[in-house]
Amino acid sequence: MQNVIVVAKLLLLTVLSAVSLVVVACGGSDAPASTPVSAVASIPSPTSAPAMIAASALTGPPTDMTGINAMHEVLESENADILFGTQADPLTVTLGPTNGGFPDYPAYDGKNSLNFKMPLRTPVIAPLDVMFIGFKNRSATYRQDTSDAPRMEPFDDLELCFESAAADWPGMVMCVYHLHTTPLLQAHLQNDDCGIQEKWGGEVAEAGRVYYLKNSSERSNRNPESCDPLLGQTVKRGEVLGYSGQVGTNAHSGFRFKVQSEDMNPLTNDGDPFLHWVQPKPFFYWQCFDPDTKFLPGVLAYPFDCGLIEDL
User: Fold this and answer.
1) How far apart are alpha carbons 32 and 24 in whole angstroms?
2) What is d(CA 262, CA 291) in angstroms, rounded to the nearest whole number?
3) d(Cα 164, Cα 29) in Å, to the nearest integer?
4) Of 94, 129, 243, 251, which cross-links 121 as Cys (Cβ 3.0–4.6 Å)?
């Protein structure tokens, strides 16, 4: 039966790919028109995954709850250095719980991520083993979309995307944005092409695969080689992915996750239709990272060093 499902998925993806070519040719897409990816790095294509066996809101809790979600109470307080921030817009979530719970700050339309409020340049660590597959350097001195809109300065908006390299979450995608910088772009902030633009918007350095609400792009744009990216590199759980950024007076970074399912995502216009955006806080089980800690299947590490929180 599993072989039948896999074959059916492959046939469906083939048909959808052909349809995508027609749509792109006619100018339909959520993301800007793409150009071919250069030889910055060779990024493997996404692969379909078997049914989830990992602990999650859909499959149930891990067999041992010791230390699981232990930081949630602190992250929901008002006095810690690191806190839960705005969660995903429920209308973007097509797998698992749609309500992120406390804090219930209203998300902007189309927001598909969970924010962690943390001081500027806090090390952001990998929640699981991942492979670096794409980046987009949108950071700017300020953002002001219209003359009467508020001016947000600074506007750190470096985004990195990863694919799971862990056996318990095959095919899962994670993108982290509002980063200040990252060691995965070895020349970031060292030259104008891979630096900070004056005003947010327009063409920026990017390469590899980046995910949007309804599609994904795979392209090379605006001299990504200037960033000296380590695309294709595997980052182990607990290793540093980057350093958190700041938007106006709000220091934070956003985390979005796409998880494989046997059901199709009704929001997907282009790309793998079996990948779904989830509400990260209630969908996953979380645990503080320590080199000696054993992580049960499905459990993610909090994306920061728990020892940094004074209330711990």
Assistant:
1) 10
2) 34
3) 26
4) 243
Q: Shortest CA distance to 273 belongs to which of 44, 35, 53, 48?
A: 48
Q: Look at the alpha carbons of 307, 60, 77, 181 in this order and tell me if their dihedral is positive or negative.
A: positive
Beta pairing, strands 300-301 & 286-287: parallel
Name the domain count of the chain: 1
The pTM for the full model equals 0.85
The three-class DSSP label of residue 261 is coil
Per-residue pLDDT of the chain (312 residues; tens, 9 = 90+): 444 444 444 444 444 444 444 333 444 444 444 444 444 555 655 554 444 579 999 999 999 999 999 999 999 998 899 999 999 999 999 999 999 999 988 999 999 999 999 999 999 999 999 999 999 999 999 999 999 999 999 999 999 999 999 999 999 999 999 999 999 999 999 999 999 999 999 899 999 999 999 999 999 999 999 999 999 999 999 999 999 999 999 999 999 999 999 999 999 999 999 999 999 999 999 999 999 999 999 999 999 999 998 544
Give residue 20's domain range: 2-308
CATH number for the domain spanning 209: value is: 2.70.70.10
Nearest to 151 by CA among 161, 165, 140: 140
Give dist(CA 92, CA 195) in Å, integer: 31
